[in-house]
Sequence to fold (458 residues):
Amino acid sequence: MNLSSANLRTDSLALFQTGLAAADPRDAVRQCLRVDDGTLRIMLDPKHPDTLRQGQWRNIHLMAIGKAACAMAEAACEVIPASLLASRPIVVTHYANVRPNPNFDLLGAGHPLPDAAGVRAAEIVIERLSHTKAGELVLVLLSGGGSALLPSPADGITLADKIRITEQLLASGATIDAINCVRKHLSKLKGGGLARHAHPADVHALILSDVMGDDPSAIASGPTVADATTFADAIAVLQNHGCWQDAPAAIKHHLQQGALGLRPETLKADDPILAGCRHSLIGSNRHSVDAMVEHARALGYDTTIHAQPLCGEARIIAAAWAADVSRLSASRTATRSAWVAGGETTVTLGKTLPGIGGRNQELALAFALAAERHELRGDWCFLSGGSDGCDGPTDAAGALVDGGSLHRCRQAGIDPLAALADHNAYPALKAAGDLLLTGATGTNVADLQILLMRSTPD
Fold:
């Protein structure tokens, strides 16, 4: 690896860390909460600090759900006096993000597939909500992963049923919105279910978004907000992704009953329960992208934000981006250029047994192969990483590839093209020394991508 490539890799890692710092859940929560003389003031929009919701709620029930739950709960308890809390805060997070705290009821659970611990956590949440009263506030701290971490199967559906349908949807390449549509209609808490259980107490959610567009009904499957999707939509998702025929019988029966009006729908916008429910978006993928752009420009890169969030099949997105960059870089006069993006791609596994990897690793390997095909000129480095530090069922957050990655991979005896075809990016990238290893980051605002280029003279 030459010195220029090494420098690009160093800058890429620095920019990725900047993106993570911009999504720091502790800072985001602290900036949005204030207590004065027993009055809790909640900022509704961080871009407009004077927009507040405030009240002298006699009891505050604090619940944190998601991969950033520990940090968010810790920050909230630094602001809210213990005397205002109705009971010990409930914190539900992924096992890798568990950070013991003697002041919390801390519960670890499974992700991306739900598990029995998550079901138990959901039961505890529902039991706690059964004691809330008018004049009280349920303060919910939501972050990415909450949908899988707090499964509460509808009556007649087992956890095994939900795991099976989730596995089918993940393998089908379904988007997170499509998966959440189905999850909402199989759950007691999703799609406004938590707000329904909390009634008649007021509800406010502080949301760290991990979805593109920051739709609150999509984040953690929208437990405190209205849901526009229906049972019929959930059935259509399963049919359109080839999952309906092999779906568990209990799930098909439940959804069909719901479509006939024999099961209660998710909470809709005109429901009076929502009169006491509000939310604040306190962090998102776009916040992180903007921070990375600012840092890249400070480092002297001519920087561009990718026109659209990176969504769609990972290998197709990678090929298209490499082709665009190859075309644009030919006419670009800047010595150092940067392209920054955020998003959440998908990987369709098909029927064959896949190898080891994740969407970010597949995106990076596919980009390296496409860059070789298009003979991308100059030194370059491409990073794609999950902001939560996890990419698929691996210990990597993603990968960091450059113009020498495929050579290093082939020297190790691995065919990168075959690895991509088999969805087996992890071994290929490990052999090239290109895995992005961060460990659990304690936050989650979807994925971040950075492409840095340095032109070389002809």
Notes: The chain has a mean pLDDT of 93.
